[in-house]
Amino acid sequence: MNNYEDIINYNYIMQHARMPINKRASIFSPFSALTGYEDILKEVRRETKSQIKLSDDEKELLNYQLPLLIKDKKEIIVVYFIKDKYKIGGEYFTQKGIITKIDNEKRLIFLENNRIPLDDIIEIKEA
Asked: Fewer Cβ in 10 A, N or C end of the chain?
């Protein structure tokens, strides 16, 4: 027997129905050998800002303003810095609200339902 003559003319009996052609492509999902690589590149490209250090005069002005603002119960705008969890630097945020409490011991101000470290505030102004 040469060249598989015993099976060339064999009648194959199908035991399972064939998969429809329109569903065959769905079994091949895209493959990414470097799963998460794009996320890492995106994180590396993300830029952060450095924190502005206030002068002693600017700190003194903020310390003077705070008790007056809590007493007046006026709406204010606070610009503050939040350090990044993963990189050096961080981001500046602006929040509007009314100061409800100042904790000098923990160096925090409470702005409605948010607390902001006093050392991270760079600007406070009336809204």
From this structure: N
What is the number of domains present in the chain?
1
Domain region containing 113: 56-126
Give ∠ CA 101-97-115 in degrees, rounded to 5.
45
Q: Residue 117 in contact with residue 65, Cβ under 8 Å?
A: no
Q: Which residues of 51-87 are buried (b: 16+ CB within 10 A; e: fewer)?
A: beeeeeeeeeebeeebeebbeeeeebebbbbeeeeee
Full pLDDT tens readout for the chain, 127 residues:
577 877 878 787 778 888 887 777 766 766 667 788 888 899 889 999 999 999 999 988 888 888 888 788 888 899 999 999 989 999 999 999 988 888 888 989 998 888 999 999 999 888 7
The token pair that represents 114 in the structure block: 């948010």
pTM value is: 0.66
What's 21's DSSP letter? H
